[in-house]
Amino acid sequence: MASIVGAFAMSHQLGSPDGVEEQSERVFQGMREIGRRIRALAPTALLIVTSDHLNNFSLTRPTPFAIGTADAFVPFGDMGLPRDPVPGAPAIAQGLLDFAAEHEVAVAAADPLRPDHGVMIPLGVIDPERRIPAVPIYVNTVFYPEPGPADSQRLGGIIRDYVAALDTTDRIVLIGAGGLSHWVGMPGEGTINRDWDLAFVDDLAEGRLDVLAARSNAQILTDAGNGGLEVNAWIAAAAAVPGAKVERLFYEAIPEWATGMAGIQFHLAE
Amino acid sequence: MAGAADGIHALIEHLVRHEEERPLVRSDPEALFARFGIDEPARAVLREGSRDALSRFGVHGNYVIKWLIWSGRPTLPFFAMSHFFDRR
Questions:
Q1: Most buried residue among A26, A68, A70, A174 by CB atoms closer than 10 A?
Q2: Inter-chain contact A125–B88, Cβ cutoff 8 Å?
Q3: Which residues 6+ apart lie within 8 Å of A159 measured at CB?
């Protein structure tokens, strides 16, 4: 029987270290620590719940939820990220698509797909050797007002139930990526709501997922920015591992990166 | 519902998918504007508008970022990803 053997959440941004060398390094080392812990779990597949940045999806065809089903992905290459192909996990991806449909959660197949930094910064640090098959799962909050926290919680439950029903010996690691507070391409860019960020992680740590899921995207947009909507990926990841204990690995508010940067591990319930 | 920024969005989406044409943003933006039926108010904000002006015009935040990068007016400084990725 397949199982989720690990779960994490982290920001999917990096920036210039100039002027913020110490903070930059703490973030990067925190990401590397997440990578080390994941590789130590010997996963057979990674499920990366994240958002695209309109590099693969169109405003003319809003796609709140999508899954990359290819057997390999050539990265989009934004931010100077490498374009070396990375392996996909098509059987797991297609199975999750089918499972979601059976449970009346609308998820589209993302094909063709060239994953941008939303996938490739976390994946690049987690799996620099490009050995672990990965499934990009999109919670595309670029299509505001959908999907919202309740939708994302539901998706996380689908992921949980799918893995539990999967008749393989797969060892799945789940990563929620994005956030935390940031304003992108709009007034307020560079603002970070440090109090909101820390409270969000506290709510996860205290098991208050239902409180987070009861929020509206409008509230998150006001308090944490259009980029802050990416925490819906963290909500989905948390919903897939109920009862998990949160370990805070790093938090840095970096205005020079225009982002509150965070990383956590969900220690799974026995 | 059609919005003032729809033509801009179509232009930028095209450039997302056609990387080879992005240099036209600086070398021949008027040709792009003509191809995508961009009217003069939109052209003005694309030529000279700030991040906030583009946003107020209705351009999606992720597209604002891309347009400003391609225009040579990024809102965040360039950095070499190798600073991090060479040390993974």
A1: A174
A2: yes
A3: A47, A49, A96, A137, A174, A236, A239, A240
Q: How far apart are CA B74 and CA B64, in angstroms?
A: 10
The pLDDT value given to residue B1: 43
Range B24-37 average pLDDT = 97
Q: Given this model, what pLDDT does residue B3 score?
A: 78
Predicted-complex ipTM score: 0.95
Residue A69 near residue B23, CB atoms below 8 Å: no
- How far is the alpha carbon of A223 from chain B, nearest alpha carbon, in Å? 16
Comparing C-alpha atoms, which of A253, A259, A260, A249 is closest to residue A6? Answer: A249
User: Would you give the end-to-end CA distance of chain A in angstroms?
Assistant: 16
DSSP string, B69-81: HHTT--SS----T
Task: Using CA coordinates, name the residue in chain B closest to A28.
Answer: B84
pLDDT tens per residue across span A208-219 = 999 999 999 999
Contacts of A79 in chain B (CB under 8 A): 81
* Mode of pairing for the β-strands spanning A171-177 and A134-139: unpaired
What CATH number is given for A3-267 in this structure? 3.40.830.10
Among B77, B81, B83, whose Cβ lies nearest the Cβ of A81? B81
Measuring CA to CA, which residue among A57, A51, A56, A59 is closest to residue A76? A56
- Give the SS3 label for residue A133: coil
SS3 content of chain A, % helix, strand, coil (to 5): 40, 20, 40
Contact state of B51 with A185 under an 8 Å Cβ cutoff: yes
Q: What residue ranges of chain A have pLDDT lower than 70? A: none
A88 secondary structure, DSSP code: B
Neighbours of A195 (CB within 10 A): 12
